[in-house]
Amino acid sequence: MQRVPEPHPTCQRCGRPLKNPHSVELGLGPTCARKIYAERQVTMDLSTYVSKKAAV
Ligand SMILES: [Zn+2]
User: Fold this and answer.
1) Tens digit of pLDDT at every position of the chain (56 positions)
2) I need a surface site. Which of 21, 30, 49, 56 has the fewest CB within 10 A?
3) Is 31 within a domain?
């Protein structure tokens, strides 16, 4: 029988130890998850801006 490697309980972004089970599941601390979410919104806003610009 092989042992299944456990997921690393550290943030994949900043490497800080994760205590929250939900954060461990995400692989991200709450702060980094928020940052990544904010970055995604910026990317979405940019793509909207680019598509609008292209349509004109
Ligand atoms: Zn982090």
Assistant:
1) 677 666 568 999 999 999 999 899 889 999 999 998 888 877 767 677 666 666 56
2) 56
3) yes
Domain count, the chain: 1
Distance 54 CA to ligand 1 centre (A): 36
Query: Could you tell me the distance, in angstroms and rounded to a whole number, from the CA of residue 55 to the centre of ligand 1?
Result: 38
In a domain, 36, yes or no: yes
Q: How far apart (Å, rounded) are the C-alpha atoms in residues 8 and 10?
A: 5
Task: Of 4, 34, 30, give the one whose Cα is nearest residue 17.
Answer: 30
Alpha carbon of 10 to ligand 1 centroid (Å):
8
Q: Is residue 41 part of a domain?
A: yes
Residue 1 CA to ligand 1 center (angstroms) comes to 34
> Residue 48 domain-assigned?
yes
Residue 10 phi, psi (nearest 5): -130, 155
